[in-house]
């Protein structure tokens, strides 16, 4: 029995990232179905998840379609209580739900001026006062959660919860647009940027290589502020391995890392690994043998 999740471009679709993290971070298997934003391909995708109109949209193993990120979170929490999507403490759980709901309905200046873009980062985006007001409110509620419930880990409530999934694209906006926040808020942002699940999502976006020109901004660029990936390059075969570390299928596409050539069953498997090799456990286990 499998869940199915409709998502948009990984580099740009902030709501898709939230939906995917609700599965990825809590160990709930899911099959993703992608559609290119602002195209007929997106309409094709959504026709397969009717009556949902936007991503993410989930189809349960029983065939029920659930749209909207909060509804998906609550459905998964109800169906998988052992996964711990929300904090165990009732007060923390209430706060986490409140924060997620505010994320869904608020911060319109930040979301409007600073659309998620995981392919670029800027030196200075000259944020408007309205964006700064949103950031101040975000820092206030982040600090409240961290001070009351976050002492035992880097996340809002100590361990990772659905609230962190909802704020992951806010963290990426702060990183992309180099928005001014306190050291404590930046530590929380850096926890997201270093998170292996987020890094895998970003690597898949780079492998997807979909460019939406309307997301580009006229600011000077800087390197992405997250961890520096291992230096891998596209290469020719033959490779050390004959089977793809992900699918087990015969290899056709290759990269080199630390002087050795490794093979994959298709360009996407190669390119997602090329983008950030160390966050793919199956690949690193193969390299370590």
UniProtKB/TrEMBL annotation:
Q: Which domain of life is it from?
A: Bacteria
What InterPro entries does the record point to?
Answer: Glutathione-S-Trfase_C_sf, Glutathione_S-Trfase_N, Thioredoxin-like_sf
What Pfam families has UniProt attached to this entry?
GST_N_2
Where, if anywhere, are coiled coils annotated?
none
Gene3D superfamilies xrefs: 1.20.1050.10, Glutaredoxin (3.40.30.10)
The GST N-terminal domain is annotated at 3-84
What is this protein identified as? Answer: Glutathione S-transferase
Origin species: Albidovulum litorale
